[in-house]
Design brief:
The chain is mainly alpha-helical. The chain is built from ten helices and no strands. Helix 9 runs antiparallel to helix 10. The two termini are 32 Å apart. Its main location: membrane.
Length: 258
């Protein structure tokens, strides 16, 4: 579970609720079922209209990724690549055939199999770069759906507010009901803004950020396979792959003894 997502939403809602209570309000009054029905499904449907069907499916298929920790372990992946490089250096690249067949990552399996089959390095690079581009486009489309839904929320909330005001103004002969109607109308605006900046917008940005981890992993795999194909020294290859790690990550070599 990615706690930054859960904590971000919980703290955002809590801070608003506390501020409302301190001003003498009641946060529960903002939870207006009619406003939620008007804003949330409409914004999602609007985003659906403006998104390619493939990416709409992708947005819901990859939704769980937003709340999970990144599936990428770069240190483990680099170690795996270097272990294979050591075997290839010692026993020849054909010794990697059984390792390629046992790969659980289809991208890695495809690239390593091509290298074992003797495919030219430039052909391996061209093939895998196409797969990387397609993967990047897939996650961009999926995250863009949620970002578009978030962008639509405030405007849909404004529509809900205007509809509520129209109904409220029809009750001029009953000031109490009109006031309640106006108050209810503005909950749609609150719902729209919250949907944009607490929920759907951040979901889209989080999915985009995590997809970058997946793309970076594939780039590391590609660089590793090319290095193995060229017969690079495992220590030198590791040094190159460690450059893909962020400044916050440990770049200690597995060849360095503790």
């Amino acid at each position: 579970m990615d706690l930054t997502v859960i904590l971000g939403m919980v703290i955002s809602i809590t801070s608003i609720a506390i501020g409302d209570i301190m001003e003498g309000g009641n946060p529960l009054h903002v939870l207006h079922i009619t406003s939620i029905i008007i804003v949330v499904p409409t914004a999602m449907a609007s985003a659906m209209t403006g998104t390619h069907p493939e990416y709409v499916r992708a947005a819901f298929k990859e939704f769980k990724m937003i709340f999970k920790k990144s599936p990428v372990n770069m240190h483990a992946r680099i170690k795996q690549i270097i272990d294979l490089a050591i075997i290839a250096r010692r026993d020849g690249i054909l010794a990697l055939e059984s390792h390629a067949n046992a790969m659980d990552d289809e991208f890695f399996k495809k690239g390593l199999s091509m290298a074992v089959d003797g495919t030219e390095a430039h052909e391996i690079e061209e093939t895998l770069e196409i797969l990387i581009e397609e993967t990047e486009e897939y996650y961009h489309g999926a995250s863009h759906y949620w970002l578009l839904a978030g962008e639509s929320c405030p405007v849909i909330g404004l529509i809900g507010a205007v509809l509520g005001l129209i109904l409220a103004l029809q009750k001029l002969d009953n000031p109490a009901e009109m006031a309640a109607g106006i108050a209810g109308a503005f909950t749609a605006t609150v719902t729209g803004i919250a949907g944009a900046y607490i929920f759907m917008g951040p979901w889209g940005n989080k999915l985009k950020a995590k997809s970058h981890d997946l793309i970076k992993e594939k780039k590391v795999i590609l660089a590793g396979i090319l290095g193995i194909s060229h017969g690079d020294n495992p220590r030198m290859l590791e040094g190159k792959l460690l450059n893909y790690l962020s400044p916050l990550e440990d770049k200690k070599s597995q060849f360095d003894k503790a």
